[in-house]
Design brief:
CATH superfamily: Cytochrome P450
Largest sheet: 5 strands, mixed
Number of strands: 14
Helix content: 40-55%
Strand content: 5-15%
Number of domains: 1
Shape: globular
Distance between the termini: 45 Å
CATH topology: Cytochrome p450
Strand order of the largest sheet: 1-2-10-7-3
Number of helices: 17
Oligomer: single chain
CATH class: Mainly Alpha
């Protein structure tokens, strides 16, 4: 399998091929550290990905974190690295500015607001007509939550979705296709930062404007990259999880029946959906020195791609039934849907809370919803997104 040139996650179509999970299983079994060309490696086993993620000294993020990272390709200049591209000790210093705001205990106070938002969206949809689940529910719900946290007015949110999608898709597209939207997004973010300097509130941007790292305030470029990451990651991951989970429960009616019979299983089911859907395809690390990964020698400067969906179906970790969807599964050890190590997703607790609340409200109102057409998938090397999904809620 080592010579199979089709195994190339740098091509976004790799993630949408019909035999994707069969390919991942073959990689895990026969070629867990698969060598591509130009020093590009593909990792598919759970333990290898965990080991890489916990060793930033030998496998850094500063030379690229995305599969087709602009840092490596030169596609989009980045004067200041995002938090995704930071290594110790800078990463911990920046992350600590917001860590407390994203703890489960701190987020408990938002549960009522999040539930109100889910209820408003569900009540606004005509339940007997076919609607696009993404456009009507999965996209506006988490976008509304993160926009509130960032202090962004409701009127801006349609543009925010368009801009966020452009940011996610930009590494895999020619620069001209997303340049206009990204330019608009940059202008909006910079204007919002300046507004919060003048009129601060109780939002995350106001907090960052007042914050210091190493005894100095954050510069405009640092604030911009921080806000861009929060905005895009704060809605795309949850949107992908919600849409993928709705589709998965439709495809597994026996599991939906189990969940409907015992709503206390919803938090557990969210973890299984995270494992099964795996909203983020992959992140990458660069070897800072010659190293050995799973008995395979890699050289300093090589780029290693970690396939999270493969890790989350690794039979060595999740058992012989790892390729089965089971809402009663106790996911132990933890799945890698949010990454691992110092770069584990900052908003993981928020995504869990949003998803739990959304499914409690959705299934209470529309237990027999039906997917009425094929999903249109996002062709991306970053997210396992679905662009549109036709559903009838009161099927």
């Amino acid at each position: 399998m080592a010579g199979d040139q089709r195994i190339d996650p740098r091509q976004a179509s790799f993630f949408t091929r019909p035999d994707y999970y069969e390919v991942l299983a073959r990689l895990r079994a026969d070629d867990p550290v698969h060598r591509g060309d130009d020093g590009f490696w593909v990792l598919s086993r759970y333990e290898d990905i965990r080991e890489l993620s916990r060793d930033p000294a030998r496998f850094c993020s500063g030379k690229g974190a995305l599969v087709n990272d602009p840092v490596r390709t030169g596609g989009m200049g980045m004067r200041t690295p995002s938090i995704l591209h930071m290594d110790p000790p800078e990463h911990a210093a920046f992350r600590s500015l917001l860590n407390r705001r994203f703890t489960p205990r701190e987020l408990t106070g938002l549960a009522g607001v999040i539930r109100d938002g889910a209820c408003r969206l569900l009540e606004a949809v005509n339940p007997r007509e076919e609607v696009d689940f993404v456009a009507e529910l999965a996209a506006p719900f988490p976008l509304g939550v993160i926009a509130d946290l960032l202090g962004i007015d409701h009127a801006d949110r349609e543009d925010l979705r368009r801009w966020s999608d452009a940011a996610i898709e930009s590494p895999d597209l020619p620069p001209g296709e997303t340049a206009s939207a990204l330019g608009e997004l940059a202008g909006f973010i910079n204007a919002h930062i300046e507004e919060r300097r003048v009129r601060p509130g109780d939002d995350l941007v106001s907090l960052l404007v007042r914050s210091e790292v190493h005894g100095r305030p954050l510069g405009n470029d640092e604030l911009f990259m921080f806000l861009l990451t929060l905005l895009v990651a704060g809605n795309e991951t949850t949107r992908t999880l919600l849409t993928g989970s709705v589709l998965t429960l439709h495809e597994h009616p026996d599991q939906r029946a189990v969940l409907l019979a015992d709503v206390a299983l919803v938090p557990q089911a969210v973890e299984e959906c995270l494992r099964w859907v795996t909203p983020v395809h992959a992140f990458c690390r660069t070897a800072t020195e010659d190293a050995v990964v799973a008995d395979t020698a890699v050289e300093a400067g090589d780029y290693l791609c970690m396939l999270y969906a493969s890790a989350n179906r690794d039979e060595r970790v999740f058992g012989h039934d790892a390729s089965a969807f089971d809402v009663r599964r106790h996911v132990n050890p933890v799945h890698l849907a949010f990454g691992f190590g110092e770069h584990v997703c900052l908003g993981a607790s928020l995504a869990r809370l949003e998803s739990r609340i959304f499914f409690e409200e959705l299934l209470a109102r529309f237990p027999v919803y039906a997917v009425t057409g094929s999903p249109e998938r996002v062709v991306s090397t970053t997210v396992a997104g679905i662009r549109s999904l036709p559903v009838v809620l009161a099927a």
